[in-house]
Amino acid sequence: YRRLQAKETRLSKFNQTERKAMLGSYTKVLFVRDPFHRLIATFLQGMGISPSFSSFVQEVLDSRKVHEAWKPLVSLCRPCLVQYDYVVMFGFLRQELGHLLRRAGLPAGSLLPEFTDSQVQWTYRWLSEQMFSELSAQQKQQLSHFYRWDLAAFPFSSSFLSD
């Protein structure tokens, strides 16, 4: 879109007509991941200074400034503002990326790295169970509330936060 070539600009800086014209010229793909899995990954990457997952979650819940790593997806990707052509769920990457590449007319098999989606899903299920058991009932409720719009917007049916 020609106006973007001048400098980096946030989508919110454009009026509705400009946004529609700009976004209409792109294929829009959104990659989503269970918010609880995002928290686990952030904790394991050492982005918090907390010694335990429970204290890290409390740090997230008490924080006045929401870090990009655990910010709700709906506030990052604006699914109500942007009509995405594809939504790709973490855990189904190989299947969905292959489909996207074929739709783009590219050879899917040779461009994709090896994904072990079933192993990833099993590992995150096990990690989720372990980490979720560390949390108090109040923390679980607060996290579900914090991510309520993500849980409503995307089909994270197996998320521990959906319960």
TrEMBL record:
The record, for InterPro entries, names: Carb_sulfotrans_8-10, Sulfotransferase
**Which EC class is this protein assigned?**
transferase
Kindly give the Pfam families that the UniProt entry links to this protein. Sulfotransfer_2
Keyword line: Carbohydrate metabolism, Glycoprotein, Golgi apparatus, Membrane, Signal-anchor, Transferase, Transmembrane, Transmembrane helix
This protein's major location comes to Golgi
- Cellular localization per UniProt: Golgi apparatus membrane
How does this chain sit within the bilayer?
Answer: Single-pass type II membrane protein
Any idea which GO molecular function terms this record carries? sulfotransferase activity
One GO location term (cellular component): Golgi membrane
Report if keyword Oxidoreductase is assigned. Answer: no
Does Lipid biosynthesis show up as a keyword for this record? no
EC number(s) in its UniProt entry? 2.8.2.-
Task: Give the residue spans that cross the bilayer.
Answer: none
Q: Which GO terms describe its biological process?
A: carbohydrate biosynthetic process; dermatan sulfate proteoglycan metabolic process
Question: What protein family is recorded?
Answer: Belongs to the sulfotransferase 2 family.
Checking PANTHER family in the record gives:
CARBOHYDRATE SULFOTRANSFERASE (PTHR12137:SF64)
Q: What is this protein called?
A: Carbohydrate sulfotransferase
Native species: Pheucticus melanocephalus (Black-headed grosbeak)
Q: Identify the gene encoding this protein.
A: Chst8_0
